[in-house]
Amino acid sequence: MPANLSPEYKAAEASFRKARDPRERLDGLREMLRTIPKHKGTDHLQADIKRRIKELSEEIETPRKGGAARGGPTLVIRPEGAAQIALVGPPNVGKSALHARLTGSGAHVAPYPFTTQFPEPGMMPHEDIHFELLDLPAISTEHPVPWIASTLQTADACMLVVDLSDPSCVDQVQAVHTVLREKRVTLTERWDAAGDAPAADEDGADDPFAMRLPTLLLANKADEVPNIDAELAAFRDLTGFRYPAFSVSASTGQGLAEIGPWLFRNLGIVRVYTKAPGHPPDKDRPFTLRRSRTVEDVARLVHKDVARTLRYARVWGKSGFDGQQVGREHALADGDVVELHT
Length: 342
Ligand SMILES: Nc1nc2c(ncn2[C@@H]2O[C@H](COP(=O)(O)OP(=O)(O)O)[C@@H](O)[C@H]2O)c(=O)[nH]1
Ligand SMILES: [Mg+2]
Prior knowledge:
Layout: H1 7-18, H2 22-35, H3 43-61, E1 84-88, H4 95-103, E2 120-126, E3 129-135, H5 148-152, E4 157-163, H6 169-182, E5 185-188, E6 211-220, H7 228-239, E7 245-247, H8 259-266, E8 270-275, E9 287-289, H9 295-302, H10 304-309, E10 312-316, E11 324-326, E12 336-341
Parallel strand pairs: 1-3, 1-4, 4-6, 5-6, 6-7, 8-12
Antiparallel strand pairs: 2-3, 8-9, 10-11, 10-12
The structure holds guanosine-5'-diphosphate and magnesium ion.
């Protein structure tokens, strides 16, 4: 990291790293540019910030004709639902088939590589919430996708799909890692620190644009691979990958039912239902929180004015006794009902 970065700049960088929404990220970048000490040692970083502001503002602020940005498809997908999960992997492994099966999307599946050309969002239901799955083009050395890292900026995690029936599987998945690393994206087996900035001794600690994505490995086409679990274990030995892994099949549906519950647990998602005083809770549409899960966080999701004027809340559920009066810092538990008093 260049020397002499001010506390003000570091605060701007920290909020940029935390933001997932493209607009918040753009605001964060502008704040970084405003606060960065302007001297020789930061020239490189200043140029990098400016380039990213230009790219992101073109992507999200250019008026769209017929829903398309810059006359082309949307490359940065605003996250929806409880978390955004990107499907990454080599060509032809079944990313689109999994996307179609898990979300009910009409993602284009084809028996030849490089069919998917642009990000395709879709919602995957889990109990009363949804995860957003992004189908993406294949990541390979032959077909570079210049915008892939920009699209991944909004993701909370990824699912790395492989096809163990393909003899070149190991090479292809190594190529995925090489391409991503060049774009400063690191896949990690650590889900407990999802969303944290890298620690001081980790890759990307000194680079605000480095990304670390918690990764779940999916060995697809289980229906075609005899002894898939032994194959998967051998693949993990050979590659040294420590990602948590499932064997699945987009064709038969094998293993797919485990994905939603696994993501829910490992992303640390908490559902909170709100209620108005004297009314039953709204059980239809929970608010979802992840690492930051206080009463104030829920109030902010409801409306920023509610967060500003909040006096206290009452909670029913696991985080307190029924009807307990709590303050804005109170940490909520999955399934809690909250009544906000402003
Ligand atoms: N047997 C089998 N074939 C699959 C499975 N998933 C995808 N395929 C086939 O693999 C090919 C590539 O699928 P596609 O989803 O387009 O791959 P992508 O390039 O990774 O998006 C197509 O012919 C699919 O029908 C699966 O689970 N089992
Ligand atoms: Mg595809």
